[in-house]
Design goal:
Length: about 525
Amino acid sequence: MIRIKKLLSLLLVSLLSWPVLAEDNNIAVSPDGQYVLRNVATGTYLMKDGTTTTDESLASNWRVITNDTIHYTDPEKLYYIHSDETIMQLNNSGLGWSVKFSPKANTTYVMPSETTDGAFKFRYRYLADTRFLNVEVDGEGNERLTAARTSSTYNDWEFVPTSHPKDYRYRLMSMKRSSGNTKYSIAYRSHDTRGNLVWLSGWMAVPTSSEGGASTADHVLFSAHFTITKTTEWPSASDPMDGLSFNFSTNKPVMIEPDYYGCGITEQFDHPYCAADIMAEECVDMLVIAHDLLRDLHQMDCSSGDYPTYGIGTSQGGSIILACQRYVENSPKISEAERKAINWIRTCACDGAYNPLATLSHYLYVDKLSIPSVAPLLLIGMVAAHPDIFGDTKAEEYFSDAFLQAGIMEKIRSRQYNNDELADFIKKACGSTMSSMLSEEAKDMNSDIAQKFQKALGQSNLTRDWSPKADIVLYYYSNDDVVPHLNFASFYNSMKDRCQGKLETKRVVLGVSHIAACVDFFARMILGAYKN
């Protein structure tokens, strides 16, 4: 859906000017990224309060944004060296050097030492004055940290894997800081479709004071992204489209957007596309764990519910964000403390497949898709999401020879093509009809594989088994050419007498397509409609 970006950019250019982005320090961390930092000259370890200790078991654990390992081959790189609640930094405001450990985002130059093999120096510069994080020992053997001009073993540090790792639920993969905000790509702990522990990824943006540090937000905006199929377009890989709601907001929220399983750092796996209930747990895990980061690095305690959550999503994201609300309100996996901290206030959703089984029936009836890549994404997604239903049945069994011989499945799984490009490949190979894409067995609704597919789709029906507590605003376009209008009608008719909060509807009037509806929705969200 790259067209959304193009159209929305044109829509906004007359309204707002683009913000200046900070330099991208996109450096990942090793698997758990926990180290103690040992000074070569003294053999003591660095603590997060700026002192040192001789006892490694008491030393603070530090995490580093780097690329799998520290880069010996690079002459110097920008890093963030951080522990819980603190980031290491030397500072010079023009009044002299000081050593600080605070939540304020601050980059560090990490460079291989020229005095000790395998060690590193933390280098800082103020104008023409270059300093190194240093341990100074007085005549009585007392140690203190200083900013040294000279290079010696006293400012050589070794990254030593810790013997006492902490059970961190998140790790930083990248961090960008510009005036008044800090943006993160993070990995967080969740579970895959089989219940196994896995690291997933996502994007966060936190408004701060001009110096960084404490957040200035008064609410959280939780976004579920639309269909994305290309590696470079995951939220964690770049400022996401939904992130314009953060960039252009006059009262910036903390914004949180998961990549989803099968996307981002798990892109080697099939994405459970449109399996909204399954992805809801993984997405809400990021929301809950993000509270840890906000507390650790931005002095934002969400536990009392003082930072309410608003959810937004369109297309695939429209389904997922409603599933997230249902999960937060109903799931026994969410504790009452977590539910209170989240404090879900309102969801704004646009043209999602809230009733996937009815959507499939519509596709088969009209036998034409304006974006034909939706069909294989949906089939691959259901097979990935429900191994208990499909067993040994493979997604390939649902497609015609013409479809398979064109290599569409390989192109989807390569993650090298966006949704528009995949749609073009399919149109050239076998047109835009369901009948040309599907195998004969898949088109027989009474066949074993068709029955499995229908059963899986039924698991993601958001129009039943729920009485929403928070407000819901449904945006819709009655002639949507991708997600049929019956989804809106099915959800609204089912929920209008069951919603405990307000259920509002807003008809989209811009354009005549699914893409236009998404553009209209994004424009409204960017201008703050999710709060009104």
